[in-house]
Amino acid sequence: MNPSAPAAFKADHQTQMPPEARAQRALSSFAREFGALTALRMESCIHCGMCADACHFYIATEDPKYTPIWKVEPFKQAYKRESGPFAPLYRLFGLKKEVTTAELEQWQELLFDSCNLCGRCSLICPMGIDVATLIEQARHAMFDAGLAPTELHDAARRQELFGEPWESKEPYLKKLAELGRAHQVAIPVDLPQADVLLLVSGVEIDRYPAQVAALAKVMAHLGVKATFRSDALFAENMAYFTGARDWQRNISEYVIREAVKVGAKTVIVPECGHAYTALRWEAAELHGAKLPFAVQHITEFLADALKAGTLRLRKAEGGSVTFHDPCQLVRRGGVMDAPRALMKALDLDLRELKNKQGFSYCCAGGGGVLMIERAKELRYRAVAPKLHEIDATGAQQLLTSCSGCRASFEDAADHFHWNKKPASLLELVANHLA
Amino acid sequence: MTQPTIGELLLQNGVSRRAFLKYCTAMATLMALPAGMGRALAAQAAAARRLAVVYLSFQECTGCAESLLRAYSPSIENLLFNVISLDYQHTLMAAAGHQAEGALAQTMKENFGQYLVIVDGAIPAADGGVYGTSGGKSYLDTMREVSKGAAAIISLGTCAAFGGIPMAKPNPTGAVPVSDVISDKPIVNVSGCPPVPEVITGTLFQFVAMGKLPELDALGRPKTFFGNTIHDRCYRRPFYDEGKFAKTFDDEGARNGWCLYELGCKGPTTYNACATVKWNGGTSWPVESGHGCIGCSEPNFWDKGSFYAPLSSAAFGRAGNVSPRDAARLVGAAAVVGGAIGLGAAAVSRQRQTRLAGAPLDPQKKED
Amino acid sequence: MDLLSFARGPALQFALVVFFIGVAWRIVGITLLRTGRLLSEPRTSLGKALFGGFVTMGSRSWPHPEFVGRTGAGEALGYSYHIGLFIVVLAFGPHIQTWAGFLGFDWPALPSGVITIISVITFALLLAVLFRRLTHRVLRLLSNFDDYFSWFITTLVIVTGLLATAHFGARYETLLGLHVLSFDVLLLWFPFGKLMHAFYIMPSRAINGYLLARKGAPS
Questions:
Q1: Among B45, B72, B314, C31, which residue has the fewest nearby CB atoms (within 10 Å)?
Q2: Surface-to-core class of residue B216, CB atoms within 10 Å of its CB (0-12 exposed, 13-18 middle, 19+ buried)
Q3: ipTM greater than 0.85, yes or no?
Q4: Contact list, B321 vs chain C (CB under 8 Å)
Q5: B353 vs A17, A31, A87: nearest CB
Q6: What is the SS3 assignment for A118?
Q7: What pTM did the predictor assign?
């Protein structure tokens, strides 16, 4: 064996089952879920290859296997063979091979390690295909086949069973109380009734406690009747990354249940990206009915307050800043203007990225990639376009509004000895209340 | 008794050598033979004996014979009747009945292996050939018998060459071209409905003067006259190239002499000499008179769709060409059928989904 | 029956029937699959979202400025042969007459010489596009029989058309017959391959544009 050849990719497995059964389960899962829209998307691909030119994984590595639509290739073949309008013909004439477990194992890397679900590919496709959503759907099938990355699977399982995405020696409630004390701010927990249900990100509590404090501070400042609930503390939805659809529903049900219990009119997603996607744009569909409350990202909530005049901000001193739009907020969420309204009120010297208003690169940590240990080297390569994009603005400081992005940038800064440290927009707001 | 040579005959009839040379040169030019061939042709023709010709008329309208007779400049063309000995021809010969048949038998006997057979009209072959008889014999039998001693056969007109109008749908008499009946003699197809007069005389003259058949195209027609399409020699071609088409027979385009493609001209796929040699001694030809070419020198021209539908139009449907209504019906019916199949496919797919959704993936799953 | 009569007669009829059956089958077979309900609160009004979908039908015809640097050339190459094909199919006199037979009306034609030039350019572009597909690393990975055959049959139609016009290689009516026959094969293939993108492109752009506009996201 050639020692310099790259080692064959070894997939993670969950659930004991005969190897052939995995492919079967993946296909059954996929067949269960898809509908006319997925079919139209899969049918529309003309193999133009443009999606590769939007994907930072391809751009950084020039490896064609990272072409976004290629990431769903086994499922495209399966769709045509099993569920499309000509499926019987494909099978009868043996025109498409059955998808094998070995193939799906190879595809685990493509679907999980090398995709942040950032949605840039969905913007470039000339046929208008939402490639990112196809990848999300493919992940569902992979999970059902027991072929999700171990870290993601374990985190999703933990959150679905116990409500907590991360392991912690200390109970989270205790950590919350501690950080409240440390920052001298009241953290309302388990109020029986509130207008606003607050959520916290596990990453925040452990790494960026100031963000949590900022959240509580701002709520108190605005006089909002808000509360955290211990039975639905976390904003994250690990099952979203993992593709565990049923678990994703169960996890968001925790939040829905508590929100209803306290009679909340609004659920606020803190500085986190995918939490927004999961709650704002997917929870109702999984729930099976319209949600009885609004879901807002904290920047949206604050921008509304700004507009209503209830929030006033002081000018923030400091040099020039640039803002990183978290992909799940901007491209997949539609939250574009809110952060800018806040930054304008802070009178910041804002240098927008050249790829602006939803076209900027991903931090390369989203979609669960940050959590996958074996994907580290790949992630570092994929974040390079983003770092260049930021440096090109000439701004001195980097602002963002997602703790996942923040962690990803910090890790990249460590690796590359990069000179910028990402800061939280919420913290900035909380420190400049007028 | 020895026949006089053509040269001797001409002199007897008061045709000067000069006039004969002029005629031969004209013929040579017409057939694009090399310069100097005119003289060679004249020499050979003068030294040749008159060729015995037997003219058989089958399922014909006599138009081809009339075209030959209308060959212009009668004083020159009549020469042809001094160059050939037309021993049997239903329309022209004075004899009838047994005398006529006797003349045929005699010339066949006297010139066996050397006489030229000109055939006019298609041959009905169905039911043993009963649909065409003359003198008690079927055309089919006559054709086979007479061709036995023929040096060559000229199928005159599209009916003899390709079956023509008698062969058009539904062809109740089982009409066939000469080449379907005779396979052991050289056949020249001089097609056209009728052929251009000078095309007939030119072909005949070449055979008489040079003793061999002209070079033939893939359909057995003399390349000299049938080597180019009407389209490639049409004087209205610049309008085709410019995209200027007459849309009706009396519109501005028609009056300006624009291309007749949209009015059904089959020029692009028709090989003949009409565009260059023209008719009535070069007076005009169909396109010049404002009507599109109907492709009469091509096989099956009668069954290739309307004369007034353009060559690029679809040629199926009851009328031979598709009308918008035909098209709408076809599309509608096909869409309904396709939609129904698609509905079935979707139903099967959805049913499969329901079945899969009903079955839980694996109750063991949470216990790993 | 000679080749040309067959090609524009029974072969064309069969091809058209298969084409329309196949297209209807494929489109209905997709449309009648399950559709999910959208239950999340939209950010924009229905009118704005629909308008967003409508705009996306056109806007995806050219990459967003942020993407143009990397993809502009390739996309321009693809578009230009499409434009060439459209002009040849829709503005050449004899082609217009084919349409007129089906539709009942016609329109003015471009000079045939112009069409010939455009056809030659289109053919050259098709060759360039094939070269790109064979050499670009992404396209080499993605491409399958469908991609190559769809290219082949499209190019064959244009090549046989040019050969017929040039009277090159065989008798004119044979070349014309081959040209029409190759079009018949194109019709037969159309519903089963990626040429169907002609029908998918607008609905796909519109629907996905609507879904994005509904979220207030860029499309």
A1: B72
A2: middle
A3: yes
A4: 101
A5: A31
A6: coil
A7: 0.90
